[in-house]
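Q: What does the assembled structure look like for these inputs?
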Amino acid sequence: MFRILKKSLKTGVVTGRHPRATQPSEPLTPEVLKKAAAFNRSLTIREVDTGSCNACEMEMNALTNPVYDVERFGIHIAASPRHADALVVTGPVTVNMERALKDVHKQTPDPKLVIALGDCAINCGAFKGSYAVTGPVDRHIPVDVRIPGCPPRPADILKALTDIQKRPLPA
Amino acid sequence: MAETRSCDAELTAAFPSIVQRDTTQREFSHFLVSKDLLPAITRYLHTRQGLHGRLTLLWAVDNRPARNTYGLHYLFTLEPSHRWVLLSTELAGDDRLFPSITPHIHAAQWYEREIRDMFGLIPQGHPDLRRLVRHEHWPKGTHPLKKDFPWDHILGRQHGEHRFRRIEGEGVFEVPVGPIHAGIIEPGHFRFSVAGEPIMQLELHHFWTHRGVEKLFEQQPLAAAVPLAERISGDTTIGHSLAYCQAVESLLHLEIPRRGRYLRSLFLELERLHNHLGDVGAICNDTAYALPHAHCSRMKEQMMQLNDRLTGSRFLRSVNRVGGVALDLTAAQLVEIVAELDRIEQDFSELESIIAHNASLIDRLETTGVLTERTAWDHAVVGVVGRASGLDQDLRRDRPFAAYDELPVKVVNYRYGDVRARMRVRMDEIHESMRLIREIRLKVPQGPVAVESSRKAQAGEWALSAVEGWRGEILYMVMAGENGTIQRCKVRDPSFVNWPAIQWAVIGNIIPDFPLINKSFNLSYAGNDL
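A:
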């Protein structure tokens, strides 16, 4: 017990000890902001890997570590698409995952956002054209937000996700 | 060398009809074998006392259009001497059948099914000829690695359903899991058969993330395919790119400068560190002990930020290149690495004692998911998982590459094969990697970090390369094509051989322990599926 307390006291608060986001994120369209407003500045995410190399998954996982601690912004990772406000899709959509992606999209309740994370999800990256790849995510389901990078750094992902939470400007 | 010759002599004495190829240029013995002799000779290599051959790689090559044949190659590692023996055979003309060796070498199971899917060659006598890589909805007759199959072919869709092995009886249930899982992990399907809580059978249905990597390699020039190798399994960027570069370098007869080799070892150990740190925490987290997970993921983050400061990439992308490494580290940066590692080692040691003093955690880890040494050997299991099950193997010691011929590695070994053993292998390897990096800083010589190549590889030349990545042995076979292209690139991630073994490690355990066992293996889906 004392060992654990001592360790926690010695470590202190590490949240926020990371380099700032460097990559300018894509401006969000008013429609996306309007849709996101329904979530009241909270966002529950279901992550779907449709053929990624696991680097984007590792960076998504990094968001939940104490340094980025994404939960403090009201962003949660859900275990089921039925609990999700947003789908984060990584990887080019492989022939074998195409059906699963469409299913998961159907299972997610409306209104929902689809976020394409990483170059592969946006334009198939290094796997473009392969017989086993059916195309980027937006060929199969409508994509609202794109976060480029191979893989994007956690700080960039965090910036893009918190941008979604901003209130739309009054018309 | 004397030992090697005696092995070769023994083999030619036992099978007089095989032909030994001249391999004075290579680091292994090579025999040409007729296909009918394959089962007998592989069995001899595998079971013979004193040879004890472990199937290390099995690959096929479509030799068209140059010759109308398919080549099949069986690579064995002889356990006592760690010597490689390669058996090659050819299927000429319209011959599509080859004898399966799976009935007596379990480790060949997935390789042979993969060859059937990718080349349309049929392993006769294989006990399980269901599709592996190609899911059932792929049209009949699709074999992507055949030379007449266009790389950008658009696949049709047929109706089909995967047939799982069924256990039937009163109270037996099937639990399907995946392909999309509850956590942030890659897709894969697991089918459990349970009676009550204990698992009676687990069957894997993978290859959801198959992206056609081996075919994509064939569209790239030899020198420019490193970025693709880096993206096979994102967490093993250095392991895969290093194995690829080494294979190409031996095709081009490049001698890598010593400083380049030392830096490669350094980056490989950095990659091992951030992955092992994350795994130790994740294993604890799967027993619902969140505290070590929080500390470990913080340390992992520190390591990845260090990677970012050193190379501009958190995953060490674009570090390796054909001929050496793409960037040099200054003396100040080496000092920075060692200082950061000193802090993390102190930090991690404190955490280790917290973990070791938690009786309920240890109780959960011990005797969970036991992979016996015998099963591990039968499936030719490699890397962390093998070392936790008593298999004393590590390429850094057994077949030194990069700078490991000058950096002796203390190989970690545990016998029990349970989750705790796998965690302890990782913990000990963390300390060993840190020690190696300190040694590298003291020993690293001055000089260039890369060389340029002047030679062109001839079409049909090929090379093998092996790297001990953080998961285990990564193997590459690269065959050059015309004008600096790639004729064939066989990639084998350690996950490909370790996945089938997990089916045996879970039997008798309860389903709630499966995530824990799976995490202690921590295998790649993308590297397996290619």
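The two ends of chain A are 56 Å apart (CA to CA).
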